[in-house]
Amino acid sequence: MTRLLPIFLIAALVLGVAGFVLPAEGQSPAPPRFVVVVDESAGRDQAAVDAATRAVKAARGADGELRITRTPTEQLSVTSYFAARGYDVIGVGLDREIAVDPVAERYPDTRFSFVGADGVAAAAR
């Protein structure tokens, strides 16, 4: 019986590691996630808000969010929040120095796109 114990422990260890390393059959990868951040600190940009709304609604197979900011502090808060959760950030009118550079430094795997109202749909694909 004591001879079988090490074999059993090794087999259990191998199976346990395989369960963590190999994805379960039929398990699909997480859908891409993005957030469109439209800044309105310089005034309302209805075209940008409309384009962002359409892009989020049209995102098939992706998890899209829309946030509208009104101050540089809100920009930083939103970009930090979503970058920490693994979202790509599409920015319209963001202050790069305040809301993007510090976040990009902390979350280097986050993809940032800077677009105008006419480029939101393409960036969200």
Provide the fold topology.
Elements: H1 4-21, E1 33-39, H2 46-58, E2 63-69, H3 72-84, E3 88-92, H4 96-106, E4 112-114, H5 120-123
Parallel strand pairs: 1-2, 1-3, 3-4
Helix pairs in contact: 3-4
How would you portray this structure in words?
With 125 residues, this protein is an alpha/beta fold. The chain has a single domain (33-123), classed as Rossmann fold (3-Layer(aba) Sandwich). Helices cover 47% and strands 18% of the residues. The chain is built from 5 helices and 4 strands; from the N terminus they run αβαβαβαβα. It has helices at residues 4-21, 46-58, 72-84, 96-106, 120-123; strands at 33-39, 63-69, 88-92, 112-114. A 4-stranded parallel β-sheet has the order 2-1-3-4, sandwiched between helices. The chain starts with a helix and ends with a helix. The relative contact order is 0.18.
